[in-house]
Amino acid sequence: MIAVVTGASSGIGEATARRLAAEPGARLVLVARREERLRALAEEIGGATVVAVDLTDADAPARVRAAVEREHGGRLDLLVNNAGASWNAPFGEGGWENVRRTMALNFDAQVRLTEALLPLLRASAPSAIVNVASTAGRVGRAGGGAYSASKFAFTGWTDSLHLEEQVHGVHVGLVMPGFVATEGFPQTMLVERSLTRWAVSRPERVAEAILDAGPGGRAERYVPRAYWLAALLRIAAPGLVRRATQRGANRLLMRRG
Ligand SMILES: NC(=O)c1ccc[n+]([C@@H]2O[C@H](COP(=O)([O-])OP(=O)(O)OC[C@H]3O[C@@H](n4cnc5c(N)ncnc54)[C@H](OP(=O)(O)O)[C@@H]3O)[C@@H](O)[C@H]2O)c1
User: Fold this and answer.
1) Which of 12, 88, 110 to mutate to test the pocket of ligand 1 (most atoms within 8 A of CB)?
2) Are 214 and 78 in contact (CB under 8 A)?
3) Inter-residue contact 180 to 223 (CB < 8 Å)
4) Nearest CA to ligand 1 atom 44
């Protein structure tokens, strides 16, 4: 199996690379900006191709595609679109600029990379794409508007892509993590309180879900699984969800004065 994993230099992407490397015959292409991290990981897992690139750069998709063509003759069995970040700020503070930069990484970069690699995935079918979105792509929270916008967009686009690519033999899976303690998303407030610590997952659990939603063929996985309830309640009981999330919003706004 030839797999491209974006955001492989830390957190969920790194855990996914380690997990995929344990699969028989797996050969990986690791993508992120921090080259040293990727090289160290590649060495640890017994070799991998490293593409150190900012995925928001105009030539990033072509550089990843060129690496797959050079190293693997264009064969590609799995693309894991995982790279992403969040810059939390209420809209009144972050404004459009915060929405723009979040969309550029969490949505546009994923779509552009997929466009560049789709011909290889189709030619290698049966193959798979796994898009790592978020439960924030189903439920919005105060301060996370830009992030939610990008993940709602990514989720909606993934739903359509899933339907379109089936006929080409490219399975498209969606993974919706809840709270996962990583470098970019330390979840400090939840981890510090014994009452809420249980709600925080580990990147390795998301990595298992990514395998389930890719080669395993599932269309959608929440991590932890029970988080599908948040998506259900947002539709079935929007008032309840709004009251619960308003409490968090009030705390955030009080802290910011
Ligand atoms: N942790 C959570 O609670 C959580 C919950 C729901 C969804 N998610 C999603 O899961 C994915 C992975 O997040 P994580 O928690 O593993 O965070 P993380 O540890 O911060 O990892 C983010 C990865 O994305 C890469 N990245 C960031 N900006 C990039 C850019 N411009 N170009 C290329 N690569 C870039 C980073 O590498 P470099 O810095 O080396 O470029 C890093 O490898 C994200 O899409 C995130 O939205 C996370």
Assistant:
1) 12
2) yes
3) yes
4) 84
- CATH code: domain 2-227 is 3.40.50.720
d(CA 140, CA 148): 6
Residue with tokens 């089936």: 166
Positions annotated as catalytic residues are 147
Classify residue 43 by burial, with Cβ atoms within 10 Å: 0-12, 13-18, 19+: exposed
Name residues of the chain where pLDDT drops below 70: 257
**Å from CA of 132 to ligand 1 middle:** 10
For residue 132 and ligand 1, the question of a CB distance below 6 A is answered with yes
What is the pLDDT at residue 199? 86
Tell me the pLDDT tens digit for each residue of 89-113. Answer: 999 999 999 999 999 999 999 999 9
